[in-house]
Amino acid sequence: MDKKSIIIVVAISLVVIFYWPILQFLGIVKPQPPAPVQTVVDSVAVAAQDTTTKAAPTAASSSTALALPDTASIKADTITVSTNKYMVLLSTKGGGPVSIRLKEYNYRHAGPIELLPETKTAVPVARFAGSTVSTGSLPFTCSLAPGSYDATQKDLRVEFVYQNPKGGAIRQTYVFHPNKYDYDLILALDNRDQLGFERQYNLYWPTPLGVTEPDPEKDYATFEAVTFMSKSREKLNDFKEGKLDQTLSGNASWAALRSEYFAVAIMPSKSDTADGAFALGHQSKIEQNGRRFEQRQLTIGLDMPLPSSASVVDSFSIYAGPLDYTLMSHYDVDLEAILDIGTTPFIGWIIKPFALAIIWLLPRMYSAIPNYGIVIILFAILIKIVTLPLSLKSYKSMAAMKELQPKIEELRKKHKNNPQQLNAETMKLYKAHGVN
To answer: Among 162, 156, 225, which Cα is nearest to 194's?
Structure first.
């Protein structure tokens, strides 16, 4: 076996050995992570518990964060909505989701992945009047009676309404879809002047993503708060003394949190309606199982303009699901940029076409041959076939070079004191024998 064959065999073997991590990184296969490091709390209990007993980990790190009032006296009713992708629990306390559990992704031996671990309020929350009023602490009434509802066959619409004594109202309407990882949120204000809101508000995701992987250090290292502005992916990671309180002004298409395999994102229905994006959070060193590493907890939000009209209606899509390039590319707001493929300086534009080609081809091969080990081997062979013409041409040139070696040595001796003449004669020899 020649050296080139050995290299090819070794390369294919390495690809087969590491094919699973590669596919998970590209978002082609669904990860099956083990039991989480953080405890997944009972969301029904969360919906009714006193949210003032525990300060949100990231909110406490920012002077702009809203301290929730004592809401223990507010009775919370809940409903459960089941789609084909997730099961979501919604509470009248805050008028929104307090649990989102993915049906197709499980902790190892511990049930479905929870995207709202240890949540302390319904999400997302709308914050008004300089963040002094938050929907997360308000009592809402629900259009549906407490219970479980099926949304696996058709869309389900759920409306929560908060009415203040002066006649102002906040309406939060959710629309859940059977086969999508996003749901719609329609936020409406009635008689805005009676609510006392003006100028601007923000839509805030106050619950950090949880650790889902066996190596929390590696998982935390992938945690990011990101936004998409002017066709550019922007990270919000300006930590100072372990705290993050950063705002970027400009038209934002979305704001998102991501971990190694999952993400949540807030997308305005009109991508140019947000005034900016912000992130809150903190990072600190923790010790676990004799290892010391950096823990990172992040939250994200969008600054939204508030028109002077008596009634205001804003619509959003909320994505809560896996990091899947193919899935995210179906949105027309460049949501797939969360994965950060092809943004490496200088060489990203070279890498991206090949990465996208692999992302497109491998699932199609897998649909025909449901074994990724065999698929990777066949893919390597396919690449070899595609590059065969170049390889044959290279072999031909190498063989010709070998035959010309004696003549090249003669030219070197003849023109050893004239490098320019040597180069010219050598190129002439190559051309005469068709060597490239």
So the answer is: 162
Q: Is the omega angle on the peptide bond into residue 124 within 30 degrees of 0, that is, cis?
A: yes
CB 262 within 8 A of CB 115: yes
40: pLDDT strictly greater than 90: no
Long-range interactions of 150-156: CB distance < 8 A, separation 24+: 150/82, 151/81, 151/82, 151/83, 151/176, 151/177, 151/178, 152/82, 152/83, 152/84, 152/178, 153/178, 154/178, 156/81
Q: Looking at 2-6, 112-116, 124-128, 414-418, which range is the least confident one?
A: 2-6
CA angle, residues 319, 322, 326, in degrees to nearest 5: 90
3-state helix, strand, coil in the chain (%, to 5): 30, 35, 35
- DSSP-assigned letter for residue 393: H
Q: Does the pLDDT of residue 161 top 50, yes or no?
A: yes
Structure tokens at 11: 């390369």
Half-sphere exposure of 435 (CA within 13 A, CB side): 17
- Residue indicated by tokens 């997944």: 40
CB < 8 Å & 24+ apart, contacts of 151-160? 151/81, 151/82, 151/83, 151/176, 151/177, 151/178, 152/82, 152/83, 152/84, 152/178, 153/178, 154/178, 156/81, 158/79, 158/81, 158/90, 160/90, 160/92, 160/95, 160/96
Q: What DSSP line would sit under 215-267, residue for residue?
A: -HHHHHHH-EEEEEETTEEEE----BTTEEEEEEEEEEEEEEEE-SSEEEEEE
Q: Which helix (H) or strand (E) holds 384?
A: helix 372-386
Question: What does each C-alpha distance from 123 to 37, 134, 142, 235 come to in angstroms?
Answer: 22, 11, 16, 22
Burial of 278 (0-12, 13-18, 19+ CB in 10 A): buried
Cβ atoms of residues 119 and 136 within 8 Å:
no
**Rounded to 5°, angle at Cα 398 from 395 and 402:** 140
Quick: pLDDT tens for 192-202: 888 988 888 99
Which range has the worst mean pLDDT, 255-269, 360-374, 383-397? 360-374
* Full strand arrangement of the beta sheet holding 111-114: 111-114, 96-107, 86-91, 78-82, 147-150
Residue 46 · residue 39 · CB < 8 Å:
no
